[in-house]
UniProtKB/TrEMBL annotation, chains A, B:
This is MarR family winged helix-turn-helix transcriptional regulator. Gene3D superfamilies: Winged helix-like DNA-binding domain superfamily/Winged helix DNA-binding domain. Residues 11-147 form the HTH marR-type domain. The lineage of its organism: Bacteria, Bacillati, Actinomycetota, Actinomycetes, Pseudonocardiales. It comes from Amycolatopsis heterodermiae. It comes from the Bacteria. It holds the Pfam family MarR.
Length: 155, 155
DNA sequence: CACTAGAAGTTGACGCGTCAACTCTAGGAC
DNA sequence: GTCCTAGAGTTGACGCGTCAACTTCTAGTG
């Protein structure tokens, strides 16, 4: 028997609830980052990627891969973050071409701070709301979903 | 004993996985809406809200409440959707002031289509990946999270 | 009725993300 | 050496979302 390809009202309600929870969670975390550290979630991601990188330095393409962003998005963001003094395009190679992205001192400071604050907020908003059982379920489901979608195994 | 307010590496990994799954899910749904129906998720939300409204008509403030958006965001979006012919600002009252937002014929058609397509995609990507057990867990957790965050009950 | 406070809605500026077009460089082929 | 191409990175235009300032309507007070 063919599954219905539409949703029952109850399923819509579930979906709306789910989306709402996601939105609230994301909003709260963004607000925390903005209020406590003065940066956006996107800026945070860049700072963390650089912070964790060997030598605290990456290339644009590597950043793009790590963040799963388009290169041009990375480039735009780096321009803005360079203007704010968080990041610098470091020259390397014989021609002095500016390849490679590094943290400034200020950028490193902010990264450290933000990681601590953000970790606290994630614990407070996410982990504290999960029982071990819920956590296991969410984790399993996330992994399965990633495999399905990234593998293109969705019918 | 005080809980640690930072995250263990394993927790970070869990968090990253979780975020990645969310991102993929959202991206895939957006792509479906865009490819199949030529609209963004935001436009979809507006169309659905109007479609479900009594009389297929709402005011800006009501839309803002329903969507949990800022009024100005709604206003900007309506301007764009009005230009695309999906929506019209209907006059009412004695002074002919344009209050109230309605669907155009075209808007109604697109809304119908999009709801069907989107429902199919949600089933395929979300519901099909859930066992009844997972579903129950996710639902319970979502509701609890909403209560906590909206109630401001987070320490 | 005039006045005013405030709600409802709009606008403009700005930072952000995407897409397509562009520049620059490194590395062959000849 | 010269040319040519593929990849890396940047730029510009445009739609989007937020914030603050603004206009306009409405309702209450005297």
């Amino acid at each position: 028997m063919a599954e219905p390809r539409t949703l029952e009202p109850e399923e819509w309600e579930f979906w709306d609830t789910w989306m709402r929870a996601q939105r609230l969670l994301a909003r709260e975390l963004d607000r925390g980052l903005q209020d406590d550290c003065g940066i956006s979630k996107a800026e945070f991601s860049v700072l963390v990627s650089l912070w964790r990188a060997p030598g605290r330095e990456l290339r644009v393409g590597e950043l793009a891969d790590a963040l799963d962003w388009e290169k041009s998005r990375v480039s735009h963001m780096l321009t803005r973050m360079e203007n704010r003094g968080f990041v610098e395009r470091t020259s390397s190679g014989t021609t002095g071409r500016r390849t490679g992205i590094g943290l400034t001192t200020e950028g490193g400071r902010v990264a450290r701070d933000a990681i601590a604050h953000h970790a606290g907020n994630i614990r407070r908003l996410f982990f504290d709301s999960l029982t071990p059982d819920h956590a296991a379920t969410l984790r399993a489901w996330s992994e399965q979903l990633i495999t399905r979608v990234e593998g293109g195994e969705v019918p």
